[in-house]
Each structure stands twice: as structure tokens, then as C-alpha cells.
Amino acid sequence: MTHDLTGRLVVPLDLDGVTDKAGLMDRCSQALGLPHWFGRNWDALADSLSDRAVWPEGADGRGLLLVVRGWRAYADARPQEWATAQEVFAEAAERAPSLTVALALGGSAEHGPGRAGRSDRA
After folding, report:
1. What does the pLDDT read at residue 60?
2. What is the 8-class DSSP label of residue 11?
3. Comparing 51-60, 68-77, 104-113, which segment has the lowest mean pLDDT?
4. C-alpha to C-alpha distance for 75 and 118, rounded to whole angstroms
5. What is the pLDDT of residues 10-36, one digit of tens each?
6. Tell me, what DSSP letter sits at residue 56?
7. CA–CA distance from 116 to each of 17, 112, 113 (Å)?
8. What is the pLDDT, as a whole number, of residue 59?
9. How far apart are the C-alpha atoms of 31 and 14, rounded to whole Å?
10. H or E segment at 10?
11. Read out DSSP for 60-100?
């Protein structure tokens, strides 16, 4: 974990290889160091993300930047679940203004076979 320019604790959430909600919940629990009683459901994730008391050490006083990367394959495979995950991230960020969730645009999932260096924009 590192700090961004504003001093927030930066926590990467790597979803590379995640294929379902259970995998997403496991990665969130690992990345954030959530307590063993974390319920691994959408409501529990929203509550945990917006509850500064369960954030990783050092984030409470400075804020938390959760950087989600490797998410495209999961989004493509499970679009409804991914839509719900985005809603949960947005809701948590609204409830906890010192939380920012950013989706990284890059990584192995985006640059898979046939996509490297490709641009569809004119």
C-alpha cells in the first residue's frame, strides 16, 4: 500500500482472474483486510467500504483510494454483477466522502490477444 499526492492510503484491488461474485468478495476482503465476520454480500461490502473503522490501518485519518484493476474480464463475463459492484462502490463513496474508488484502465485484461496497441478512435 502506498499514498497518493493528497495523502490518502492507496489500496489496489486486483480482480484479474475473478469470475464471479464470490471471487470479488474474497479479493475485496483480502485487499482491505476486512474482519473475519465480513458477510461477503453486497450490503456487507457497501457497509465495510463506508465504515472507516474497518479500513486498513492508516486510512482512517487520511482517506482511502481503492484502485480497482483487472476488472474488464469480470465485467464482460458477469455484466449484471459488475453493474451491482459499481453501484456498491458509488454508494459507499457517497456515504464516506474520504473514500474514492477508481477503475484503472489498463492491465492484462484490457490488453489481451488482439487488443494490444489497438485504437478504435479516429
Report:
1. 77
2. E
3. 104-113
4. 20
5. 999 999 999 999 999 999 999 999 988
6. P
7. 19, 7, 7
8. 86
9. 8
10. strand 9-14
11. TTT-EEEEEES-HHHHHH-HHHHHHHHHHHHHHHHH-TTEE
